[in-house]
Every structure is written in C-alpha cells, then in structure tokens.
Specification:
Elements (H helix, E strand, L loop, with lengths): L7 E5 L4 H12 L3 E6 L2 H11 L4 E5 L5 H15 L4 E4 L14 H29 L2 E6 L3 H4 L5 H21 L4 E8 L5 H9 L1 H10 L8 H12 L10 E4 L6
Parallel strand pairs: 1-2, 1-4, 2-3, 4-5, 5-6, 6-7
Length: 248
C-alpha cells in the first residue's frame, strides 16, 4: 500500500515499542520517516531492523527548544517539508500519588506536554504555509478513565487531549488537521515487565477489556496511519481510542 507515498513524517519517541510500530507502518505505506528519539542507539537499531527505504534516524531531546528547532530545519533542508508530525514521545511513572515528588511531576509534564508543544510549534509554520499537514498526538485512555497509580500521567495526557482539540480549532481552516490517538493498555516491554511482577494484574486487566486482551503496537500504528492519510481528510479535533472497548 502506498497511500502515504511522497509524504514526509516525523515520529518522536521512535525507539520505543509504539514508536517503532508507527515508523514501520508509515514507512510501509510509502512515507519517508524521521525516527526522532533521545536514544541514539535505539533509533539506529530500529532503522536497521526495519530495513525499509527512506528511514532517517536522528537524535532529538524534545525538552530542548534549540535542539527541536535545529532538527526541524535539517529535516526541511533534506526533504523540503514535514507533512505529518506524530508526537509519540512520552514518559510515565507508576505509584501512589502521595509517594510522588514534584520532580516527578515536572519530568512528566516537561516531556509529555511541553515536549509535544515544542515540537508542534516548530513544525506547524511550514504546514500552515503549505496549507496542508497532519499532527497526531499520542494521548492515553488513562486521561479518559483515570488510573490509580498514574494520576500525574493521566493529568499530562488530559492536557494533550485538550491541546489537540483547541489547536484543531485554530488550524483546520488552514488545512492542518490535528487529532489524537488514545491507546488503552498496549503490549509493550514496560507493561510486559509489570505483568511479570504482577501476573494477577494482567489477568484482571484483560478481564476488564470487552475484547479480552490488550492492544498490540501495530493496532495503535494502524490508527495513526489512518489519521496521517487522505482517508481522514474530514476529521479533526478527534480522540481515537484504541482500547478493545475498555473505555467507551
């Protein structure tokens, strides 16, 4: 399938499980994909493992404004434009709120919210100039349902959803569509490690999901690819949950 042929996409957090799946899906659909992550070895490893055309791994710390601006300038110099931005980079911490500390709150908001804002503001001018673009923010259904042990993460992802809807109202008449993909639990290495420590939690979680299982990373990536394509040309300001019915 080449529904993203000649499209230039940037995926932050590309070295992680969901990021890797998004890169693979967008590239398989014909896009040129920038793999952006603070983990330099991770992006190179993903690019080598996927061995697909037009993958460009770069090292990017989304908490640094100048680093983001410099990277955007280099991408535009190499490929002239950025058509799709997938704000996937994020961080979470699990534990009771009363055990958390202010530095934990600041870390989560610095990456999950401020990093997303920084990347969006750097990429958006080029999209507005061309009157075309897709911004896809990876949120979480933790923001919709609330999760014990992830109060601050849920708050940060709630901010992502609010920003998505507000920016969509600002940019849609200029041809830039802004949406969020909001996964429920996803089969990634951190969740696998949690399940290994707490197998009873894995069984309880699966029982709460009407489809009886957690999501695979490629199922999240499929939703991103849809929103990146022309098939979503009349969709903006929406939150697409990928959760097997966990939140309705």
């Amino acid at each position: 399938m080449n529904r993203l042929k000649d499209c230039v996409a940037v995926v932050t957090g590309a070295a992680g499980g969901i990021g890797r799946a998004i890169v693979q899906r967008l590239a398989s659909d014909g896009a040129k994909v920038v793999l952006a992550d603070i983990d330099e070895d991770g992006t190179k490893r993903v690019a080598n493992e996927l061995a697909l055309p037009d993958l460009w791994p770069i090292t990017l710390d989304i908490t640094r404004t100048e680093a983001v601006r410099d990277s955007v300038a280099k991408i535009q110099e190499r490929w002239n434009r950025i058509d799709v931005l997938v704000n996937n980079a994020g961080r979470t911490r699990v534990g009771p709120f009363m055990d958390s500390r202010e530095e934990h709150w600041e870390e989560l908001f610095r990456i999950d919210v401020m990093g997303l804002l920084r990347c969006t503001q750097s990429v958006l001018p080029g999209m507005l100039d061309r009157r075309r673009g897709r911004i896809i923010n990876i949120a979480s259904d933790a923001a919709l349902a609330g999760l014990a042990g992830q109060a601050v993460y849920s708050a940060a992802k709630g901010a992502v959803i609010a920003f998505t809807k507000s920016l969509a109202r600002e940019t849609s008449s200029s041809g830039v569509l802004v949406n969020a993909v909001s996964p429920g639990p996803v089969n990634t290495p951190p969740l696998q490690r949690l399940f290994e420590r707490q197998p009873q939690f894995a069984a309880k979680l699966a029982a709460e999901i009407p489809m009886g299982r957690i999501a695979e990373t490629d199922e999240v990536a499929a939703a991103v690819a849809f929103l990146a394509s022309d098939d979503s040309r009349y969709i903006t300001g929406q939150v697409l949950s990928v959760n097997g019915g966990w939140v309705m």
